[in-house]
Amino acid sequence: MLEKMHLESINVGQVETISHKQKWFTTGICKHPIEGVALIEEAGVRGDSIVNTEHHGGADQAVYAYSTDDYDWWTAETGRDVTPGLFGENLTVRGLPCDMNVGDRLLIGEVVLEATAPRIPCSTFATRMHESEFGMAFREAERPGIYFRVLNSGEVSAGNTVTHIVNDSSDVSILELFRFNYALKHDRDTLLRFLEAPLAIRFRTKVEARLESLQQNSD
Which of 35, 141, 181, 195 is least surrounded, with the fewest CB atoms within 10 Å of its CB? Predict the structure, then answer.
């Protein structure tokens, strides 16, 4: 099954200090569209800055993509003017589904990206949005955007066609993982199913920890 989409914007950020209500963060979350050709490498979009490497970036979360359609929803819901890069995404894609499965791939020219995890909101994100409760709004909206690992590097530019290739061997959806992150109860079989998917290492660690806790509590 192939679905074509459209790359509307490529966004990169430099190191900046942002603040809101006595909270200050040094971050690369403030991303802005660039002109011309961009090189996507294993580490992400060349020229992009990642500050908090404990929670962001790395080979399994090298590229973050967000849907223009979801931005349209935020505009209708909040009346807020949104522009590409506002949520800190590297790629703004028209038609990107929020219910992709882990292991699904995007083809953009020679670039091959593999879906690995949803975005989980943090304090830096809330500060970026100048809204202390934005994390809760983002959670309730269930429009998290998607992290990708880069399977094949290459050059991309705004206007490129994006093709979605479904991974029929995986049935773990991005939204399912997003909900898992907040769930208080877990099922062993579900956690084992998660671990069969090509998860980002940070999410894999979370799943393994909760599986271990579940097993300890059952002993």
Answer: 35
Domain-located, residue 108:
yes
Does residue 166 fall inside a structural domain?
A: yes
Q: pLDDT digits over 98-153, tens only?
A: 889 999 999 999 999 999 999 999 999 999 999 999 999 999 999 999 999 999 99
Amino acid letter, 13: G
User: CA neighbours within 13 Å on the CB side: how many for 96?
Assistant: 33
Read off the tokens for 161: 């066609």
Tell whether 72 is covered by a domain. yes
Report yes or no on 209 lying in a domain.
Answer: no
> Strand 63-67 relative to strand 91-94: parallel, antiparallel, unpaired?
parallel
The predicted pLDDT at position 163 comes to: 96
Calpha distance 102→36 (Å, rounded): 30
E strands, the chain, in order: 2-13, 16-20, 23-27, 31-33, 37-41, 44-45, 63-67, 91-94, 105-108, 111-118, 146-152, 154-157, 161-165
Range of the domain at 70: 2-182
Task: Report yes or no on whether pTM surpasses 0.70.
Answer: yes
Strand 105-108, strand 111-118: pairing: antiparallel
CATH number at residue 52: 2.40.33.20
Element (H, E) at 54: none
* Number of structural domains found in the chain: 1
List residues bridging with 17 in a β-sheet.
26
Q: For residues 195 and 207, what is the distance between their CA atoms, to the nearest angstrom?
A: 7
Return the pLDDT at 31.
97
